[in-house]
TrEMBL record:
Name this polypeptide is given: Anti-anti-sigma factor
Gene3D superfamilies from the UniProt entry: PAS domain (3.30.450.20), STAS domain (3.30.750.24)
Domain STAS: 204-315
Superkingdom, natural source: Bacteria
CDD domains: PAS (cd00130), STAS_RsbR_RsbS_like (cd07041)
UniProt xrefs under Pfam families: PAS_4, STAS
Keyword Acetylation included in the entry's annotation: no
Coiled-coil regions, chain positions: 16-57, 171-198
Sequence ranges assigned to domain PAC in this UniProt record: 133-187
Length: 320
């Protein structure tokens, strides 16, 4: 009886050990499976992250590809030998090229023959040596041949690994509108200067009507050849317009009289007589009279009076 119990206990113990071994194997298998599952999860996560990176890279590539196409600047790439490889839409429109034309053009095609020497001997070497050249230049329109002023920015594209030059590139701005605006500003400035000069001439050579058939020009300040010419022009115009018979030129306020001024006065008097009018010179001060005599100025044909008042009285007394 006691022997049977011991046998049963041994059997049970053996079964328990076997069960424990089975449980251990199962636990180990589960642990292995859990590790495999975790590895699969890590691989799957890495795959998701890789796909996300690829998607971001693709988005970046699309944005970078869209950048030159949406730029208003001329963006082009050429081989180191000068063969055109890429030109964005704005660049093609600027120089009058079609997409099919690109494979047949080189960098030199964009320049005028007379500009090519400078491009080859200066711009290209500077770009290769220093990596960039920036300056104002001009392109040639392929269809019309018209010059296109540009701000030419030429630079090298280098291999990121070796650092060796891979291609020549440019981002170039069209200066046509800016140049046109500059020319317009210069034109307007010149026009303002011209109007101001004309206004100053009129102010420095005022012509006044003092009665029917008589005009007066009072002069003040220094006289030179330029102002003397303006006096002549203004007087002759006034005589013709007013149909004047008497022209009073008052030099009371003139600070200087030299040979040039004296000659100009004589020319004015002769021109006035040719128009059928009488020249009256007033305001001759003693020092000016002395200068005129010293210069040997011939005042025949010119009425000379000491004051403007006497000159006006003379003009009024003349028959109509």
């Amino acid at each position: 009886m006691g022997t049977d119990v011991r046998l049963d206990t041994g059997v049970v113990s053996g079964e328990v050990r076997a069960l424990r071994d089975d449980v251990l194997r199962l636990e180990q298998e589960l642990a292995r499976r859990d590790e495999e599952l975790a590895e699969h999860r890590r691989e799957l996560q890495a795959l998701y992250e890789r796909e996300a990176r690829l998607a971001r890279v693709e988005d970046e590539r699309k944005r970078l590809a869209a950048l030159p196409q949406n730029s208003s600047d001329f963006i082009g790439i050429a081989s180191m030998e000068g063969k055109a490889q890429y030109l964005n839409e704005a660049g093609m429109q600027l120089v009058g090229l079609e997409a099919d034309d690109l494979e047949r053009v080189t960098i030199s095609s964009f320049f005028f023959p007379e500009d090519l020497t400078y491009a080859v001997e200066h711009i290209l070497p500077e770009t290769v040596k220093h990596g960039r050249w920036v300056g104002e230049f001009r392109f040639r329109h392929f269809k019309t041949g018209a010059p296109i002023p540009v701000l030419y920015n030429s630079f090298l594209i280098k291999d990121p690994d070796s650092g060796q030059p891979m291609a020549l590139a440019t981002v170039t701005a069209d200066l046509t509108e800016r140049k046109r605006a500059e020319e317009e500003r210069v034109r307007l400035k010149d026009e303002v200067i011209r109007v101001q000069a004309a206004t100053l001439r009129e102010l420095s050579t005022p012509l006044l009507r003092i009665g029917e058939g008589a005009v007066l020009m009072p002069l003040v300040g220094a006289m030179d050849s330029g102002r003397a010419a303006a006096v002549l022009e203004r007087l002759l115009q006034g005589v013709s317009t007013a149909q004047a018979r008497v022209v009073l030129l008052d030099i009371t306020g003139v600070s200087n009289v030299d040979t040039q001024v004296a000659d100009a006065l004589l020319q004015t008097a002769r021109a006035v007589r040719l128009l059928g009018a009488q020249m009256v010179l007033t305001g001759i001060r003693p020092e000016i009279a002395q200068v005129l005599v010293g210069l040997g100025v011939d005042l025949r044909g010119i009425v000379t009076l000491g004051s403007l008042q006497s000159g006006i009285a003379f003009a009024i007394q003349q028959p109509r």
